[in-house]
Amino acid sequence: MGAATAVRTFSSSSSSHVAAAKPRRLLAGLDSRRARALASPPPRAVASSRSPLVVSSPPPPAAAAAASAPAHAKVDRSGRFCSPRAARELALMISYAACLEGADVVRLFDRRISARREPGFVFDKACLLSYNHMSFGGGPLEVGTEEEAEKLTSQNEKDSANEAEVLSAPPKLVYNNFVLRLSRELLVAVASGWDKHVEIINKIIPQNWKDEPVARILELCILHIAMAEMTSKGTPHKVVINEAVDLAKRFCDGGAPRVINGCLRTFVKDHIDVAGTSQAAESKS
Hints:
Strand content: under 5%
Helix content: 55-70%
Number of strands: 2
Number of helices: 17
C-alpha cells in the first residue's frame, strides 16, 4: 500500500505531496545534465555527464568522429524545432517540472507559453542547429591521446552549455506552432488519463522504482506520456515505444531505457489491442 501511494502522489492534480519532494535528492539520483536542465528554471550552465573518456592506443577513428559530429536538429524556415521528437521532449520537460512544483501539467504549459520574456533577454537561434535530439549517454569512449581527450571534453562542455541554453529559453522561441500544439495535446492526454495510468504503472514497474519514486519522476513521466499518446493519439505503439526509449537514453540513467521498453510492451500487450485502441476505452463504449 505504501508503494502504491508513493507512485500516486505524482498526479498532475496533486500539490502537497509533490511539493514536499526533495528536488536536490532527485536530481542527484538522476545523475544527468539534461535532467537538471529540464527543471524550472534551469541553470544556464550544466555540468556534463556525457560518456567518460579513456585514453588508449591506437584511437578508434569512427567512434571519435561520431562523438565530435552530432546530427543537426530538425528546424523549419523560421529556425525553430518542428519535429514530433521535439514535442515529446517539451512534454517531458513540462511534466517533470510540474511534478517538482506540484502543478497541473496543462496549466504549467500554458503559463510557460504565455510568460513574458525578461527585459534584455536575447536568444541566438543558431544554437538550435547544434542541438542534437539523438545525443545519448554510454560507456567510456576511447581516444588515442591526452590532446584528443581534452578536445572531446571541451566539446562535451560546449554541447552541455548549448543544451542548457535551448532548454531554458522561452518555448515560443524554440518550438514552432506544430510542436507547441502537439506537446499540449500530449499533456492534455496525460492529465486526463493520469489516475488510470498510475494504477497500471504501479503494477508493471520494478519494485526498486516503487521504493524510490522521488528519484524516478523522470522515468514515470516518460511512461505517462507514452501511454497517453498510444491511447489518445493513435500513434503506432512501436513508434511510441522507440521514442520513449530514446527519451530515457537521453535523460535517465543507464538501466531506465530497458525497463521502460519492457513496461510499455507489457502495457501494449495487456491494455492496447492490435489497432492501437485502448481496451479500457472500448469496454466503456
